[in-house]
Design brief:
Elements lengths: L1 H6 L1 H14 L8 H20 L3 H14 L5 H12 L3 H14 L4 H22 L7 H18 L7 H30 L25
Helix pairs in contact: 2-4, 3-4, 3-5, 4-5, 5-6, 5-7, 6-7
Keywords: Signal
């Protein structure tokens, strides 16, 4: 049943586009006709996207959008497909198209916001080690990072796995520095040629590098 309906989609789209183009004062495509077309097109677009044919899915929804230019639904669906494909720049564009038709659409707002954050995070990562990043660009990056911390919390800015790895690296580095400082103090307290332990230190080795810091 669905196969027969989908096979007629191109003809329906062409007919709706022609009718919409000929309309003068009132649209000739009814709301019910559009909703039926949108339902069928959404189902087929999802199947196409799931099978890796995302470009075909987008083209199908683009035809639906042309048939009824004042409706947001095709653009919201396109934004979802782009977002799932990690094509965040196009997800933002499609979300903007949807919001031009309905400023209150929460799905479009969410996709636009999260896509924008991911694009910004990627850009900041690429620029982090750029020695030529100066002036206004660096200030803008700093301001954006501060805003993201205020909204999401500092730890949320870093993926959990990367955050945990960073904490471990910092802990290892801190231990190495403490050991190096302890060795430096021991060497400075021992006269040249004197192998006896510093005053106040036990002769037996305890194996605790932080014992002298107590």
């Amino acid at each position: 049943m669905l196969a027969s309906k989908w096979s007629s989609l191109p003809m329906i789209l062409v007919a709706m586009a022609v009718l919409s183009g000929c309309a003068t004062t009132e649209p000739l495509v009814s709301k019910d006709q559009f909703l039926e077309l949108m339902t069928l097109s959404s189902q087929k677009a999802d199947l196409l996207a799931d099978s890796g044919k995302k470009e075909e899915a987008i083209n199908l929804l683009t035809d639906v959008a042309r048939a009824k230019p004042d409706r947001k639904e095709p653009w919201v669906h396109m934004a979802k497909i782009h977002f799932d494909a990690k094509n965040y720049s196009q997800a933002i564009v499609s979300s903007e198209e949807a919001l031009q038709r309905d400023r209150a659409d929460q799905v479009a707002k969410s996709i636009r916001a999260v896509s924008g954050l991911r694009v910004a995070a990627q850009s900041l990562t690429e620029l982090r080690n750029d020695v030529d990043l100066k002036g206004g660009a660096r200030a803008d990056a700093t301001d954006l990072a501060m805003v993201m911390r205020e909204i999401l919390g500092e730890d949320v800015l870093v993926p959990p796995a990367e955050l945990e790895a960073r904490k471990k690296r910092e802990a290892v580095a801190a231990r190495k520095k403490a050991i190096a400082r302890a060795k430096a103090r021991t060497q400075s307290a021992t006269p040249p040629g004197d192998t006896s332990p510093p005053k106040g230190q036990a002769t037996a080795t305890t194996g605790n590098p932080f014992g002298m810091l107590k």
